[in-house]
Write a structure and sequence with these properties.
Layout lengths: L8 E6 L3 H13 L4 E6 L2 H9 L15 E5 L7 H6 L12 E5 L4 H9 L4 E4 L4 H20 L1
Parallel strand pairs: 1-2, 1-3, 3-4, 4-5
Helix pairs in contact: 1-5
Length: about 150
């Protein structure tokens, strides 16, 4: 950020639960660098976005995020299924994908990491811990890219 202006960093959130999306949005508002969240609510629309198809076919109208936060359990396609399509993502296949879920099943976490997820965090029911987890993810996957 050489120009003195703070760059606004785009995050793509793929999450079907409005309450969880709202909590992530609140954690963004509390964060120390400017972030903007684009929210997609189901797996089918997420695939269209990632592959630049359907209503996202015009890539110029599609924001390129610096981080993708992907829920594990989504309607239409699961987060795991979406992650496996990564080679077909138009110009987005090199962006870190952080999976999140209320599931703590070791096998699900391992499968996501083996299929290319950069990180995985379990949604905490404690608000302070949820925000802390989000900020840790932002620190790890965005700050190193800003510097």
């Amino acid at each position: 950020m050489n120009s003195g202006e703070e760059e606004i960093i785009d995050i793509l959130l793929i999450e079907d639960n409005p309450a969880d999306a709202h909590l992530i949005e609140l954690s963004i508002e509390e964060y120390h660098i400017p972030l903007k969240m684009n929210w997609i609510e189901n797996g089918e629309e997420a695939l269209d976005y990632l592959r630049a198809e359907g209503k996202f076919a015009n890539i110029e109208n599609r924001k390129k995020p610096r981080l993708i936060i992907l829920d594990l359990k989504l309607p239409r396609f699961t987060g795991s299924e979406i992650l496996k399509t990564r080679p077909s993502w138009k110009d987005l296949d090199n962006i870190p994908v952080v999976m999140h879920s209320s599931s703590q099943l070791h096998q699900e976490i391992t499968n996501c990491l083996e299929n290319g997820a950069a990180d995985f965090f379990v949604k905490s029911i404690d608000l302070a811990e949820f925000f802390s987890d989000c900020h840790r993810i932002f620190d790890r996957w965005l700050i190193k890219q800003v510097d």
